[in-house]
From TrEMBL, chains A, B:
Residues in HTH marR-type domain copies: 20-152
Domain of life: Bacteria
PROSITE patterns reported for this sequence: HTH_MARR_2
Pfam families given in the database record: MarR_2
Lineage of producing organism: Bacteria, Bacillati, Actinomycetota, Actinomycetes, Glycomycetales
Protein name: MarR family winged helix-turn-helix transcriptional regulator
GO MF annotation: an example: DNA-binding transcription factor activity
InterPro entries noted in UniProt: HTH_MarR-typ, MarR/SlyA-like, WH-like_DNA-bd_sf, WH_DNA-bd_sf
BP terms from Gene Ontology: response to stress
Amino acid sequence: MENNAELRFDLGDKTPRPLKRQFSRLMGMTAAQVSKVAQEALNAVGANKFHFVVLATLHQFGPSSQAAIADRTGIYRSDLVAVINTLEEGGYARRGPDPADKRRNVITMTEAGTRRFTELDGILAEVHEHVMAPLGEDEREQLFSLLTRVNAHLAGD
Amino acid sequence: MENNAELRFDLGDKTPRPLKRQFSRLMGMTAAQVSKVAQEALNAVGANKFHFVVLATLHQFGPSSQAAIADRTGIYRSDLVAVINTLEEGGYARRGPDPADKRRNVITMTEAGTRRFTELDGILAEVHEHVMAPLGEDEREQLFSLLTRVNAHLAGD
DNA sequence: ATACATCGTTAGTGGCACTAACGCAATGAG
DNA sequence: CTCATTGCGTTAGTGCCACTAACGATGTAT
């Protein structure tokens, strides 16, 4: 995995002090690092995060409409078209009409898709290990919990 | 400040469980929320984060070349041109030649720039208060510290 | 029959991270 | 003194991604 040195938040004396206390800057830079690590790992096997997200949704909810997948994942319906196209081309999902409602497609995960999901899940577990390596188990849970509360708050709780 | 509900990480039963344990997804969504809150607050006074970053650099280091500012802030030299253009147009900075080296410009903060920096710093302090509202003081320090350690690790420490 | 909403798709827009290349200038080696 | 290399700032892009608008087909309610 490549080095994310250019996204280092604190460059010692080189970084102006007002920037060092900017949580938004810290969040932005660290999220960009984490995103790059995950993206590179997934790209290495010809996947991206949207593939994982859609496969995870099908894995849990079974065959679903595109609108339902978009609703559960936050992926825009317009963007989801291409994601499903590439999953279909890879043999991981099938797109078919919904007999009950001609407006809808039903997206079904294939067995290859199930295996792909497991593969990507494993890759992301490794990414997680790498990203979280400097933290102990309690600290990992703490970080996750604190971020989750901030997220919920900003979402309007 | 607008509601960031569409970036809610955990939608209860609606969110597939594998996504709920993805730290990279949590980081990405929360960073996007925080970024939007900060951006909207800054945009409301005709600024953006790059203005703040450059003014913070000039505030601490005094008159500097564009290359030095780029080096200290991580802003690409090609992108810095427009940031300095708008600071100059706003009367917050002055761009002039360096007598010692004609290759270089020297960017100098004006008094209006100093006031602007103080204004933006105050706005970002309010943003910080809003973002961190659900956490106690210890938790805020903890979150900051944990993220800083992850960032340093991914930067190659 | 009609108005409205849903679904999926296409066709964009704008911002941003990022790179390449250019002209001018400075520096160091030979 | 000449020349190659590097530095500086700018222009001109590229590609990705978050996001929106609009369309045609379809379903529903009145």
